[in-house]
Structures are given as structure tokens and as C-alpha cells.
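Hi team,

As requested, here is the filled-out complex form for the flavin-adenine dinucleotide run. I kept the field names the same as last time so the parser does not choke. Let me know if anything looks off before we queue the next batch.

— J.
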Amino acid sequence: MDMANLMQIETAGLRGAYKRSEPMHTHVSWRAGGAVDRAYAPADLDDLSVFLRRLPQHEPILFVGLGSNLLIRDGGFRGTVVFTHRALAGLLLENDSSRPEIYAEAGVATPKVARFAANHDMEGAEFLAGIPGTVGGVLAMNAGCYGSETWDVVVRVRTIDRAGKLHVREPYEYNVAYRSVLPVHPRDEFFVAAWFGFARGDGDRARQRVRELLAKRIATQPLGEPNAGSVFRNPPQDYAARLIEASGLKGRRIGGAEVSPIHANFIVNKGGATANDIEELILLIQTTVHRTAGVRLEREVQIVGQALKAQHEHN
Ligand SMILES: Cc1cc2nc3c(=O)[nH]c(=O)nc-3n(C[C@H](O)[C@H](O)[C@H](O)COP(=O)(O)OP(=O)(O)OC[C@H]3O[C@@H](n4cnc5c(N)ncnc54)[C@H](O)[C@@H]3O)c2cc1C
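And here is what came back:
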């Protein structure tokens, strides 16, 4: 028995939902993978703060939004997951500065932010409609598409530390790069909200752009099967999908995981894929593309936890 599994958290007075041994395949878009030892869906920000204060100092913590860029290995994650989606759900228009800002908490789905901006006659948020994540997830990943990235439109962020204390941080406090965001001074903090700045504009035009963008996605991505979007970052001046296709890997399968015949940078779950199937396919793609094209593809999707074998050895 894993000792970590025996850890008890004092839940008296907490208003959120606390669970032990929570299976994660229902919480990630790949619909695969293992369980986490502890999971908490806070009632709101204050409740999250109380919860974090109660966690032991060295407890590994993982914030999860919509799980659309995440895989938990089959042996699970020895730590605590905090679910933000629907939990941190505040979404407001703040009109008190010279330009309006949208304040969105970490659990708000990004397409909702795009709609909210258009409904308030703002433009520049349309790209967020195509990313099936949460505000916390797009901040952590600097998610983007069609020439725009999340941090292009971030004015400030609100974070929470392990002791449950809130901070307001400016963009210059982060090294922001393509699908990568790291604090300049390493800190154990998580995103709980952001203020976004968008230009005033025409809501109808924004909604039209959203429709066009979504139509383009439906035409080019395998949205009918569980996936996690692009698996690899595009290398400089090239496309991961092009390299994978040129390496002859479209349609390649390991177990229930398949390199999508529609978009080669997507791995789809054909049914019953394990996290291990997906990870092995990722490794096969990396070695094959390196051998055939000399390019080392870097993973964009986040993989955490233990392989099943390692867990058995541990027990
Ligand atoms: C069909 C499809 C299309 C996609 N298209 C795009 C695209 O065009 N562009 C793009 O960039 N991505 C795309 N993605 C990937 C994914 O949607 C983004 O990476 C998104 O930002 C993930 O958000 P999430 O809330 O689901 O994060 P999760 O998958 O839940 O988490 C991703 C990472 O962010 C961390 N994280 C989550 N919330 C927080 C928080 N509050 N504080 C700190 N860390 C946090 C997690 O710990 C994890 O490391 C696509 C995915 C799918 C399935």
C-alpha cells in the first residue's frame, strides 16, 4: 500500500468537494490514464485558499482545467489535483481604467471568454474560442492559434501560493515563450485569474470571426475522437504535422492510440487507449522523426504521474 494514499486532509469547514483515488480519464480530453491520490474542487477562491493552507508542505499539487493538454500516467499521480473548471468561475467586465478589461477566473472555459468579449463589443479574443481549455490552462501553456497567443492579451494575473496567499503579478514577472510560461523568479504559485485587455470593436465582426475559425477547425482536426490537440510544438520554420506525415506515421497505431490520419500532430484514442499506449506512440514519433528528418520534436502536451510498472514495483 502506498503510504501517500493514507494521508488524511482535514476537510471540516471546507465547502468544496474532496475525493480520494479519483480516476482521471474522465477529467482529461484523451479519456485515458490513471487516478490521482487526492482531488479537490473548491467552492470558490476563499475555499481554495483554506484548502491549500491545510496541505502538507511537500505535497505535490497539480492544477487541472479541462485536461485538454494533459495525460496522467496509468499508475496515477501521488499528490493532490485541484480542479478549477466551474469552481473558479468569475467573469466580469471592469470598466474603471482607460480601457476596459475582462477579469476571468482560472476555471472559466476560454470559448466563454471569447463570447463574453464579443458580447461587449471587444475584438481580439476570438482565437480563444478555438482552444478547448480554461483560463488557467491557457495562461500556463501560453496557448494560441491563428497568429495570437494568450499572453499577447494578458494585462495582469492573479496567483495563489501553496500557503493559500493571493498575489497580483505583471507579465514582466514571467518568461513567456511559444507554449511555455515560467516565472522569472521560480515560485510555487498557480494561476487563479487574469485581467485581459482587448480592443473596443464590433461584436458582430468578432462573432463572425469565431464562426470562421471554428469551421476551419472542424474541417482540419479529428474532433470526433478523444485527443489533446497538438501533441508536439512546431519546430522553428516548420510544422510538426508535416514532419510526422513525411515520416510515414499517419495512421500508425499502438494499442488504442493512433496518429490521426486527419491531422498528423494529433494522437487520437480509438477506444481503450492507455496512457502508456499514447506515451509509447509519442516516443515512436520522436525517434522516427529524428531518424528520418534529423529534427527533435518537443512535446507540448503535459505528462505527469507514474507508469503502471513503476507503481507495481513500488507496492
Ligand atoms: C481539440 C483540441 C484543440 C486544441 N487546440 C489548441 C490550439 O489551437 N492552441 C493551443 O495552444 N492549444 C490547443 N489545444 C491544447 C489545450 O486546449 C491548451 O493547451 C489549453 O491551454 C489547455 O487548457 P486546460 O484548461 O485544459 O489545461 P489542462 O490540460 O487542464 O492543463 C494543462 C497544463 O496547464 C496546467 N494548469 C492548468 N490550470 C492551471 C492553473 N490554474 N495554474 C497553473 N497551471 C495550470 C496543468 O497543470 C497542466 O500542466 C487543443 C486541445 C484540443 C483537445
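Two things worth flagging: The CA atoms of residues 76 and 105 lie 28 Å apart. The mean pLDDT is 94.

Thanks,
J.
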